[in-house]
Amino acid sequence: xxxxxxxxxxxxxxxxxxxxxxxxxxxxxxxxxxxxxxxxxxxxxxxxxxxxxxxxxxxxxxxxxxxxxxxxxxxxxxxxxxxxxxxxxxxxxxxxxxxxxxxxxxxxxxxxxxxxxxxxxxxxxxxxxxxxxxxxxxxxxxxxxxxxxxxxxxxxxxxxxxxxxxxxxxxxxxxxxxxxxxxxxxxxxxxxxxxxxxxxxxxxxxxxxxxxxxxxxxxxxxxxxxxxxxxxxxxxxxxxxxxxxxxxxxxxxxxxxxxxx
Length: 261
Fold this sequence. Notes:
The protein is an alpha/beta fold. The chain folds into 2 domains: about 1-45; about 45-255, Rossmann fold, CATH 3.40.50.150. Helix content is about 40%, strand content about 25%. The strands form 3 sheets. The chain has a 7-stranded mixed β-sheet with strand order 3-2-1-8-9-13-10, with helices on both faces. A 4-stranded mixed β-sheet has the order 4-7-5-6. The two termini are about 30 Å apart.
């Protein structure tokens, strides 16, 4: 069902983009409102349940921030003494993200990092999908963008302890986690991670290696529902549910030592 609605919305987005409406302030605001409505009512309808894992005054890291659906909520939950690192590599998304953060006076809380998070710092190529603002992804060719690691970002900043990391990077989630090893061992934050079978395969990864890496850090998989996290589920159960559905979904990973489910 969600896949059908997403296809219809993307078709509408292509038509609107070609019309030039998105180049206007009114058009951009309409797009952002429609995007928030779609995320909040369908794709991320249980987002409120993540608030349990955002400690006031803590750091939250939004990897693949896009135009800030999660970033804005994280900043409101972390509060004025908290910190949100919003990592986003694509220029148009960064502009919209900056505007939305400023419009809500969240600049003192949110630090926007115009880069891609990966395993090692440097430069990577970002393939831009003009017809899907959430499908920009790392590739062998594309626009060069700065690459950072979560560990290096935190080493450069005096941030409070990290309580939550959200990762949605079109199949490169395993690389983000590899570059956050010290952060995971030090703070054991909750992780909210997209698992997309096709995107992982396109990046040369698999859900098995993703799950194994997180298991080595002490993490177990949970579904996030209307009533909060489920009891731990197995990788096999996750893969079976993805195969029956759209092939992708968001899952909550909790460190066994910090598991509050």
